[in-house]
Amino acid sequence: MVSTAGPFTVAPEGTGWQPGNDQQVSWAVAATDQAPINATQVDILLSTDGGLTFPTTLAAATPNDGCQIVRIPAGLNTTTARIKIQATENIFFAISPQNFSIQALSAPTFYLTPACLPGAFWRSAQAPPPR
Predict the structure, then answer these.
(1) What is the pTM of this model?
(2) Helices (H), the chain
(3) CA distance 34 to 38
(4) Please, what CATH class does the domain formed by 9-99 belong to?
(5) How far apart are CA 38 and CA 40, in angstroms?
(6) Where are the domains of the chain?
(7) Which of 21, 63, 71, 101 has the most CB within a 10 Å radius?
């Protein structure tokens, strides 16, 4: 155990995400990117079964800086999604503390979400597919 690092945690994901959209994932780096751990990169994985498996990679070998914008794959529909952040080529990981939903919207929306840069915002719009 290293007393100068940790805990490495994933921020709660909120109420829900939409498939096909970009979404911000945040985590507490907790000095894991520094010596003696030196985990400078992480992988971001998605579970749709409450954390039993994590078959979908949202980002691989991204900087361990606490924030990443990822694209949620189209066609997903679940109320038991979870995020796993794992150190690339290392042995530790963290899983989001509760399930969240990924569901398609039935009406057009426009929303702003915080971007990874201080004071910046990420714009996104989503319209339902034609019927």
Answers:
(1) 0.79
(2) none
(3) 5
(4) mainly beta
(5) 6
(6) 9-99
(7) 21
